[in-house]
Amino acid sequence: MQTEPAEARRPFQAQAEVAIADPERLIAQVFEHFAGHDAEIVPIERGSSAVFFLGEVSMQARADNIVMSVKADDETGLAFMKSLAAHHLIEFVQGERPRFAWTGDGVGLSQFPNFREMTVERVADMTPHMRRITLSGTDLGRYATHGPHLMLFVPPEDIARPEWPVPGEDGLPVWPAGDRRPQVRTYTVRSLDLDAGTIDVDFVVHGDHGVGSRWALNARPGDVIGVRGPTGRRRPEADWYWLVGDETALPVIARTLESLPASAKGVAIIEVADEGEQQPIRYDADIQLRWLHRNGAQAGTTALLVDAVHAVEMPPAGTRIHAMAGVEYTAFKAIRRYWRDELKLDRKDVLPVAYWRRGRAAGEAAPDDEDD
C-alpha cells in the first residue's frame, strides 16, 4: 500500500474558546512560563504562539475570552498539546476553574491516543536494589522515535479490573472516582524490543514505601498496568555529552550511552549506594564513565555528584555540548546554577531535572522552579 508523503499530510488541529476575565494578563503569564521551559515564542495579534517539539499552541485575547488553537503532526501530539494548553491556562487562573470544550480534530475520543494497557511479562533483579520489569503491549513504535520516558498508571491494590482516566472535553484526564483512581509515576524506557512488543522498565526498590517501588516488588507475570507515553525530550545531537545522575537516572543514562555513536565524547557520572549497585553498560562512544559510591550514606545527603560535576574539565570552546542531570532536588539546584550561571552554558544545551526530593514522597507535586 502506498504511503502518503509526510509533506502532503495536513496537521491535526483543534480550537477552544475560554470565557475568562483579563485574558491578556493570563496569556502573558502562560507564555512567560512556556519561554522559561525552552519553547520558541512567536508574538501574534493580541497573543502569542509557542512551538514545542510535539506541536504548537496559540492563544489570542478577545474582549472577555481567550481563543486557543493547537496543532501537531499526529493525533498523539495533538492530545498532548491540548492537555498542555489546558493545564497551563488553568494553572494561572485565579478563582473558579473555567470550563471549555475543544472542537476540531480528536474530539470524542474514549481513550488517550498514547495510552495502552500493558501486561507484566518478566521480572528480574539487576542488582540488590534495581528490579527490571518487562511489559508487553501493542503499537509501541513511537517509543523508538520519541522521548525516553513513560507514565505508569498503577492501579489500586486488590482491584479485580483496573479503571483508567479518559479524555475530558477540555483535553485533561477524567479520573475514576475515589479509591479506584490509579496513581501515576514517571519512569524511563530502559530498552525496547519492537519485534517482541516489549518494554523494559527499571525500578529502584528500597522497601515498599513508594507507589512504584511497592508495585515493582509485588509485580508478577500477568499483572496489568496502564502506560501513557512516550514523554520527554529526544536526545539532541552533540559532540560532547555530560551525563549526571543517581540511581533514579541510571536507566536513562545507560540508554543514552548505548545509543551514542562511536564519535561522541564526554563524561558520565553515576552515584549509587555501593559497588554492588553498579551495572555493566556496553557502549561504543568515547565517554568516560565514573561511578560514585555513598558507602553507607543515605541517598540525597552527600555532595558527591555536585563535587564531581565541578571537577569535570570542559571541552574546547565551540564544542556542541549536551548536559543532562537527573538527581535529588538539592543537587539539582546546585548543578543547574553551576551550568547556567557559572559556566554560562546555553539553556538549550542543558537539561537538569529534580527526579526526586528528600523528605517528599515520590509523585508529590514538583517544586515550582523544577524543570519539565
Structure in words:
The protein has 372 residues and is α+β, with helices and mostly antiparallel strands. It folds into three domains: 6-104, Alpha-D-phosphohexomutase, C-terminal domain (TATA-Binding Protein, 2-Layer Sandwich); 115-231, Elongation Factor Tu (Ef-tu), domain 3; 240-356, 3-Layer(aba) Sandwich (Rossmann fold). Helix content is 19%, strand content 35%. The protein is built from six helices and 19 strands. The strands form four sheets. A six-stranded antiparallel sheet has the order 2-3-4-5-1-6, covered by helices on one side. A six-stranded antiparallel barrel has the order 7-8-13-12-9-14. Helix 5 packs parallel to helix 6. The radius of gyration is 22 Å and the shape is globular.
Layout of helices and strands:
Elements: E1 12-19, H1 23-36, E2 40-44, E3 47-52, E4 55-61, E5 65-72, H2 75-92, E6 103-104, E7 115-127, E8 130-136, E9 149-154, E10 166-167, E11 173-174, E12 183-193, E13 198-204, H3 211-218, E14 224-231, E15 240-245, H4 250-259, E16 265-272, E17 286-293, H5 304-310, E18 321-328, H6 329-342, E19 350-356
Helix pairs in contact: 5-6
